[in-house]
């Protein structure tokens, strides 16, 4: 990872609101398409027709495309930078999406309510273990950032206590302790019957970011790793 040297100018709050109003429902519509694709039982002719329609829509969207990912264009910590994020991204249909909000009274504590549908299945009817890991990596990293100690995941240890059912879940994260550029965070996925997966991770502000901050004299906030 490197810092985007272009540092593109931020857009106005009005433009941000307009883009949010445009892209959030569009992305949600594609999530619905994914769920419908997995669960449809329509006849083969309808599937073939739908495939042609989806391919036509894809071709229309490809008429104008960014080179590479969204975050690479909008830069660290910029308002639209996390829109491509695979967990929280407003423009990423793969993202459930998670919407972490401050909660609880532990340092950096954040919670997110999420409903995981058929797209996140591992064992029949259950959440894929890698998906739980994905959500926990993000929520622990968000907790570290919320505590003013952002970093990249150095390690993430998971304990799968019991199966996680698809459906409504809560994901919680908080900071356990920190030493300089190293922050240890904890969290869990909570299902209808209590915690299912527990996580403990180390988040490190990388050397390049530490050196950048040192050069800037800490005048700017550390980069966010979303
Ligand atoms: C609103 C914001 C929300 C943000 C949410 C973010 C959630 C998403 C988080 C991610 O998914 S990040 C992507 C996944 N992670 C990575 O790709 C990280 C890949 N690894 C690295 O880039 C570097 O190895 C790392 C940044 C972790 C460390 O690089 P450094 O250049 O800082 O290395 P350095 O050797 O200086 O290590 C710094 C300290 O961390 C320690 N350390 C590094 N890796 C460790 C490890 N695995 N276990 C234990 N300690 C570790 C290391 O010993 C050292 O301790 P001390 O400073 O006390 O000597």
Molecular structure report:
The chain is an alpha+beta fold. The protein has a domain at about 100-215: Thiol Ester Dehydrase, Chain A (Roll), CATH 3.10.129. Helix content is about 35%, strand content about 25%. It has five helices and six strands. Strands 1-2-4-5-6-3 form a six-stranded antiparallel sheet, with helices on one face. Strand 1 (about 100) and strand 2 form a beta hairpin. It is globular. The protein starts with 12 loop residues before the first helix and ends in a 10-residue tail after the last helix. The structure holds decanoyl-CoA. Decanoyl-CoA binds near residues 138, 142, 153, 155 and 207. It catalyses: (9Z)-octadecenoyl-CoA + H2O = (9Z)-octadecenoate + CoA + H(+); dodecanoyl-CoA + H2O = dodecanoate + CoA + H(+); hexadecanoyl-CoA + H2O = hexadecanoate + CoA + H(+); tetradecanoyl-CoA + H2O = tetradecanoate + CoA + H(+). It is a peripheral membrane protein.
List the helices and strands and how they pair.
Layout: H1 13-39, H2 44-61, H3 70-74, E1 101-102, E2 110-116, H4 129-146, E3 152-160, E4 167-179, E5 182-191, E6 194-204, H5 207-216
Antiparallel strand pairs: 1-2, 2-4, 3-6, 4-5, 5-6
The protein binds decanoyl-CoA (MFK).
